[in-house]
Amino acid sequence: IDIKALRGVTGGLVTLDPGYKNTGSCTSAITFLNGEEGILRYRGYSIEDLADKADFLEVAYLLIFGELPTESQLNKFHSDIKENSHVDEDVKKILDGFPKSAHPMGVLSSLTSALIAFNPSSVNIENEDDMYNAIVKIMGKFPVLVAWALRKRTGQPLDYGDDNLGYVENILQMMFKKTNKNYDINPVVVNALDKLLILHADHEQNCSTSTVRIVGSSHAGLYASLSAGINALWGPLHGGANQAVLEMLEAIKEDGGDTKKYMAKAKDKEDPFRLMGFGHRVYKNFDPRARIIKKAADEVLGDLGVEDPILDIAKGLEKEALEDSYFVDRKLYPNVDFYSGIIYRAMGIPVEMFTVMFALGRLPGWIAQWKEMRENKEPIGRPRQIYTGENHRAFKEVSER
Ligand code: ACO
């Protein structure tokens, strides 16, 4: 395709494609997704291999820079991130201003936006060094903001964890460290969180990623674009689904565990209820990430000795949906968020933090997509519309209306 020639075309035929179901907004070399066959690859590597063999930081490097890192590249990346993880003390004052009840997604998007004021050099990215510095800064500071959003909610003093730990281990340490008592790091939990973050790391032009790209296409800075992406992710039809799934499973449990009743509600077109965690815009086959997560959920719950009736309800719903013609005909399979909340819950992460954990995983994908958009010198995103309003009308003075 001659992309440059396409860019010059304006004033042509306007296609109407609500929800952009069949509209490509860009070319991209980052993530390959075949929804019919359930295939997902980052930079050519299958999601199954990456979840099994790589760690989150390697995958972040792969997404952002295009190749798996050598050992020394990975070590440098990690140490640059650690060196840049400090968050300006004044950001704590902003956090202090939020009520304890504030939703952590709102806190995270606000603080990510606030970082712009404390790191003004991240706005004007003119060369590779500027880009690299902006990337390692946000990769360092973002997990701190995530952990602080949780600690604010739980009334714990803010903490930077332990620099000697791995990236993912330290996220857990920062989130759960008690005063004078380190969090007891369980390798099974670290491994499961690592996998979850990898599975969420990118998913081509979904709602939040498209938001990051379109905001960035106006040449707004990286952190401003990321903050917008966090807000897009928050909605229950997108990343907010993981919180919505768990709340739905809890509601079914409280209501006596009758999954059939909720299946019927989901199929009733008069009822706005949807089976959260089912269906996907692109996957019309099993979400490959859901398979990996389901296995991880069994491992974590088994290792921690957690017997969660919610998991049984989830498995029951999945079994019924896979045998129900409404779901089969519409190709509605469990998506990545159907099981992730069960793992987060077993790890002791409160339900309001689930979408924040998704954002933590999606960060390298957003960065990679933003970087690609800028490097490809993409034009400002500006969709057209089909106008359906009034024709020209004569203005009437207030007294005549
Ligand atoms: N429960 C019941 N019916 C559903 C569901 C569901 N979860 N999802 C889709 N349907 C039905 C629709 O009612 C529609 O039926 P119809 O053809 O009889 O009108 C048909 O399936 C197609 O659904 P659309 O909404 O047109 O599909 P779309 O691609 O626009 O939406 C979406 C995809 C938003 C994911 C949808 O399936 C949904 O709302 N799922 C529940 C929320 C969820 O889990 N979101 C997370 C997605 S994954 C992610 O973002 C990480």
From TrEMBL:
One GO cellular component term: cytoplasm
InterPro entries reported in the protein's UniProt record: Citrate_synth-like_lrg_a-sub (IPR016142), Citrate_synth-like_sm_a-sub (IPR016143), Citrate_synthase (IPR002020), Citrate_synthase_AS (IPR019810), Citrate_synthase_bac-typ (IPR024176), Citrate_synthase_sf (IPR036969), Citrate_synthase_typ-I (IPR010953)
List of catalytic residues: H280, D337
GO BP terms, alphabetized: tricarboxylic acid cycle
Pathway annotation from the record: Carbohydrate metabolism; tricarboxylic acid cycle; isocitrate from oxaloacetate: step 1/2
Keywords on record: Transferase, Tricarboxylic acid cycle
Entry superkingdom: Bacteria
GO molecular function, one term: citrate synthase activity
Pfam families named in the record: Citrate_synt (PF00285)
Reactions catalysed, as given in the entry: oxaloacetate + acetyl-CoA + H2O = citrate + CoA + H(+)
Keyword hit for Transferase: yes
Family: Belongs to the citrate synthase family.
Name of the protein in question: Citrate synthase
